[in-house]
Amino acid sequence: MPTPPHPQDPIVEVHDLVHTFGRDIRALDGVSLAFDAGMVYALLGPNGAGKTTLIRVLATLLRPDSGSAQVAGVDVLAHPTRARTRIGLAGQFAAVDDYLTGRENVRMIGRLYGLSGAEAKRRADDILEGIGLTDAASRAVKTYSGGMRRRLDLAASLVGRPQVLFLDEPTTGIDPRNRADLWTLIRQLVDDGTTVLLTTQYLEEADRLAERIGVIDHGRIISEGTSDELKDTLGGAMLELSVEPEHREAAQGLLRDALGDEPVLDPETERFRVTAPDGTRSLLVAIRALDAAGIEPDDVRLIKPTLDDVFLQLTDTDVQPEVAS
Ligand SMILES: Nc1ncnc2c1ncn2[C@@H]1O[C@H](COP(=O)(O)OP(=O)(O)OP(=O)(O)O)[C@@H](O)[C@H]1O
Ligand SMILES: [Mg+2]
After folding, report:
1. Which atom of ligand 1 has the smallest separation from the CA of 219?
2. Which end of the chain is more exposed for a tag (fewer CB within 10 A), N or C?
3. What is the Å distance from ligand 1's center to 27 Cα?
4. Does ligand 1 come within 6 angstroms of the Cβ of 81?
5. What CATH number has the domain spanning 12-231?
């Protein structure tokens, strides 16, 4: 018998997972990660990074070559059947039947999870309402659009009240309004006690939804942390401001002394740009220094790197990160 999980143990804990397809595709090349219950963890990575492969291992659909994985206190490789009772997976467990209606599908899966007929009915209606499919619930699934199918998949993955929910690109192909609704729904699930591991290619999604983000590329986690921590890895913020032309020379010296970096005047925008190592504090220091000399800066901006910048830099694409304005 596996020992019950200690409340402080991470709810998902993965050590050195390796999985190879064929001879030389190392889809997982030593993945380790761990996170606590009650959060959204986003796995962010480009096409072919290994996201789906990792999700399939954790959801007991694929046996890795080596490594270990615990989910909700269960060793998924040693006890896959037990693990399956604690997890939900959007898209895969939900063997959605095209000829049944949306409601019938969700109810049926509820029954498979051992709910009574009345319970399955109530829960199906609640979930379909929450996911915005009430109007379409009585229609056969074969009449659904791609986005509606995805939402039905998600609905089906929730019936069993999983402790941990795996969502592989839950909002890909979903229009912006429905995406925002899904985000709300996912946050509600987390508030109700479900832990979510999702994969995404949308940086905004990871930024908005996830407490922690793991960036995966070529089967390896190449960076990990909160969205702010990841942004910090790019180096700090930049300060931009303009001053009247007659004050430029003085301002340049004052900014250099205050921030310890040489301000650069952009000839096009006629604005100074200088690194702001302490973010908002640097901004205050700079403004005070200028103010003390009777210089009033205009159009002051503190520019922080975005998650896009981090992602592009980490995943080693040809695109140079730009400082967003
Ligand atoms: N069944 C398979 N047979 C052979 N190679 C596979 C198989 N599944 C995945 N791969 C390969 O493993 C690597 C990782 O694929 P995976 O599907 O995990 O990437 P992903 O991060 O989910 O990508 P995407 O963002 O495109 O969904 C890729 O090189 C892919 O071609
Ligand atoms: Mg994938």
Report:
1. 14
2. N
3. 6
4. no
5. 3.40.50.300
What's the predicted TM-score (pTM) here?
0.78
Residue 22 alpha carbon, nearest atom of ligand 1: 4
Identify the CATH class of 236-304: alpha beta
Question: What gap in Å lies between CA 276 and CA 52, rounded to an integer?
Answer: 39
E strands along 22-91, which residues? 25-35, 40-44, 66-71, 74-75, 87-90
User: Does the beta carbon of 230 sit less than 6 angstroms from any atom of ligand 1?
Assistant: no
Of the candidates 61, 91, 232, 68, the one whose C-alpha atom is nearest the C-alpha of residue 152 is 91
Ligand nearest to the CA of 28: 1
**How is the chain split into domains, by residue range?**
12-231, 236-304
DSSP SS3 for 19:
strand
Q: How far apart are the first and last CA of the chain?
A: 56
Atom of ligand 1 nearest to the CA of 46: 25
Ordered per-residue pLDDT tens for the chain, 325 residues: 555 556 678 999 999 999 999 988 999 999 999 999 999 999 998 889 999 999 999 999 999 999 999 999 999 999 999 998 899 888 544 467 899 999 999 999 888 888 899 999 999 999 999 888 999 999 999 999 888 888 898 888 888 889 999 999 888 877 888 788 888 888 988 998 999 999 988 888 898 999 999 999 999 999 999 988 888 776 678 899 999 999 999 999 999 999 999 999 999 999 999 999 888 899 999 999 999 999 999 999 998 877 777 778 787 654 444 444 4
